[in-house]
Structures are given as C-alpha cells and as structure tokens.
Amino acid sequence: MTEASRSVLLVSGDEIARYGFGDGHPFGTDRHEAFMRELHNCGMDGRVLRASARPATREELEWFHAPAYVDLVRERSATGHGYLDAGDTPAFRGVYEAASSVVGGTLTAVEAVMTGKARRAFIPIAGLHHAAPERAAGFCVFNDCGVAVHYLRQRHQLQRIAYVDIDAHHGDGVFYAFEDDPDLLFADLHEDGRYLYPGTGHANETGAGQARGTKLNLPLPPGADDDEYHQAWARVEEYLLAGRPEFILLQCGADSLAGDPITHLRFSEAAHAHAAARLCAIADQLGHGRVVAMGGGGYNRRNLARAWTRVVESFLDNEEQLETAHREAS
C-alpha cells in the first residue's frame, strides 16, 4: 500500500449490508454487494484501509432522534411487523440493529478522519437523509448524517460543519433538523420537489431564524444532465469556500444518474467523481482535509456501483497527488 492508500478508509461489511428491505423493495440488501463487486473488479478494494461498522449507542442515536421513536424502532424490530412511516419504510426483524450499525458505520468513518487514521472515508450503505427526529421516512430509519453532525460537536468540539448532498432527493431530514442552525452549512443539489419526493428543497428555503440566508438548496428540473450539474456545482464551491467548514460530509446518492428507476435526473458517474475530487481540494485548501462520503440512494445497481466506485477513486487520486507533491517538495 502507498501512503495515499493508507489515507482512504472504506467502512463496509455484513453489519451495514443487512440494512435493506425485501419483497422487491427498491432499497434491497443487494446494494452493498453490487458496490463491493465493482470496487473489486476495478482493483480498488486492495488499495484502501478497511473497517467494519459498530452499532451506534442509544446516547448517540438520541443526539438526533427522540427517545420515543428509538423505542418504536426497537419494538417493531423485535416483531418485524408494520411500518416505521406512512408506507415507504417497512419494519423487519433486526431493523434496529441494522439501522444502528449504519449510524455507527458513519461515526466510525468520522472518528477515523478526526483522529488522523484516515483523511477521507467512504461508507456505501449510509446517508439516510430523510429520517426525522421523530419518524422514519423514505427508506431511512435513523439519520446517520444528522447524528454525525452532533457527534463532531459533542466529541470533537467542531462547530462549523458542511453537509453536501447530490442525491436526486432533497435531504429534508437534515435540512429541517438544522434549518435554524447557522453553523451547519447545507448545500443540496437535487431534483425539483415539484416532481419528486419529498416535495421540498425549493430555492427560497435558505434557513430559518438566525440561520435565514445560510442554506443553499439547488433544485434542478427533471432530465438535468452533467451540464446543469456543473452550473449548480459552481455555486456549491463558492458557498463552501465562503463558509470555511471544519469538516465536510458528502451524501452522494446515485439516484441522480440517468437510468434510475424512481428519479428523473440524468447525471453521469463523472458528476460523482467531480464532486468527491472538488470537496477534497476544498478541504485541503481550508487546511484540514476532512471529507467523509456516504452512499445514499440509488436503485439502479450498476449506477450505484459505478458512481460510488468513482467517489473512492477520486479520494485515492487526490491523496496520490498530495503524496507526489509532498515528495517533490521534500
């Protein structure tokens, strides 16, 4: 392994692969394997550090979620009956443990970056950005993104954290939980809510209270491709450089790629590679280099496998460029 490889962590394994729903549900448990197979075929699985997810503690879950909701998930996890929302997110036996491991996996990635064990990290089954403090939503049981923000603040005393989202669906669970928090930088590039669940994320939603004007929602029309992505992405970079976050979280849902069965954007995998590379460059420019990416949505298996592999590839390429520059300077 090169020094660059030792700087990129992949959190994967059975603990998070179990998070998914049966009976032909779009979010099936085969998504993890689809990505890992592509990563292996591209020769990248041996170039990264590896870690398994741990279960999140009850305390960690309750940094974001209401105790009564955590109890509900635990109860329905034991029986495997019913839904955790209005009908998108069914309970199954062990859902509490699987969803808790997704949160714990994201926290494992965050902790590795914060302690210097890695500079970039990726976790494929994560980025469950629809879950709200008191309910599940849109295939998302616990909101690992929101818990990660609180973890960085509680355990590492960071305040200014950036959440960047290129999933086709608006990250409403994160947005509304931090809508009045001026220190949570929020940049979300998504399909216009007039055409796609959850129907939110309009351009005029810029924050509330003391945070009004501090959030960036960038809705795109159905059929928007890489050209529209790049136009919107330029605004994300300007926003992040002005905001100077201390840590960057990327939700890189692959349902924004052309051919997804439940969305209408038409990005290519190059958009995901570009987002990952540019966030690394921005984090380096800001002096800390901290980037954690979470897989998010994506229901065309080839699309998610390719998009997420390109994210990992961008992380590795960026680290190799840094290593080369350091070697030449010394």
UniProtKB/TrEMBL annotation:
Please provide the record's keywords in A-Z order. Answer: Acetoin catabolism
Q: Which CDD domains match?
A: HDAC_AcuC_like
Gene3D superfamilies to which the protein is assigned, alphabetical: Histone deacetylase domain (3.40.800.20)
In this chain the Histone deacetylase domain maps to 25-313
Pathway of this protein?
A: Ketone degradation; acetoin degradation
Task: Name the family.
Answer: Belongs to the histone deacetylase family.
PANTHER family according to UniProt: HISTONE DEACETYLASE HDAC1, HISTONE DEACETYLASE HDAC1-RELATED
Name of the protein this chain belongs to = Acetoin utilization protein AcuC
Organism, per UniProt?
Steroidobacter agaridevorans
